[in-house]
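<amino_acid_chain>
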Amino acid sequence: MRRVIRAVSLALLAVCLTASAAFAMEIKLGIVTTPGSAQYIVAEKFKELVEERSKGDITVSIFHSASLGNETEILQQIQMNAVNMGVITLGPFDAFVPEVKVVNFPFLFKSYDHVSKILDGPLGKEVLKDIEKAGFKGLAFSENGFRNLSNNVRPVHSVEDVDGLKIRVMESALHKELWRVLGANPTPMGWPIYSELEQGVIDGQENPVSVIKVFKLYEVQKYLSLTGHVYSAHIDVANLGWFNGLDPEVQKMLSDSMYEAAVNERNWNRENEAGFLAELEKEGMIIDKNPDKASFRAKAVELKNMELFTKDPSTAALLDKFLEATK
């Protein structure tokens, strides 16, 4: 009898081990930034939650520091399912899904609370649904924060001071057109850009204060203006086909984990922003904390009537929804 029980026990153990091995999965997740950055904080928290909730059956491998290429290249790899997931700045998405650019419309949001209300609501869900047409599963919005202008040529208080500055922008049609309208010479570049700033290939760049601090751009940029011209979100995404092929329970666990990771990172960014700014001052940056935003806004509003937004009816319609919801 004991031999029978032992044989049955061994058989059950073999079945369990086989099932566990069959379930074991590695998720490859790509970001362009380094440990300590906003994107890495999202990825790291997601990894922690998934591995804990799956009891180690699912592991998350984070490919950071642009080891997989720039953000456009990572998105292409996600489309091909060479990489399963990514935490990607919203700007590069507009080359894949035109509607996405509405979230980056200048001076759209009034505060971080305003951002959360809109992007965690129906309009945010509509954007996440829209990116499915390009083969992406949108899981959550995390953030870099509100973008500000830095340069190494002169203080910038009003939009007139931007004239002629060679500014690095993301590989995004919207960001390129915005800085053209504002009077700069926009230069699209992937990340990172420290060497280009150090060598004077570009005069400046625009990013949230957390990015300027984490990447030590204060070493190669003298002037910072808190223009807050665009809210910079990440979209936390997966390959749509891969995601849809997972068991529903696993899909829910991944979705819940990414949303929690995104909220955790948003809170980190918002709670530390004042401290980041103080550190930039301590490092010697000359900061204009109250630039003439109205002068920037008056120029930037021209974008609404440009082909960038009017050419595609669905993009124009979505922008109208966002402008109505945020006015």
Remarks:
- Confidence is low (pLDDT under 50) at residues 1-22.
- DSSP finds 13 helices and eleven strands in the chain.
- Residues 25-326 form a domain with the D-Maltodextrin-Binding Protein; domain 2 fold (CATH 3.40.190.170).
- The first strand starts at residue 25 and ends at 30.
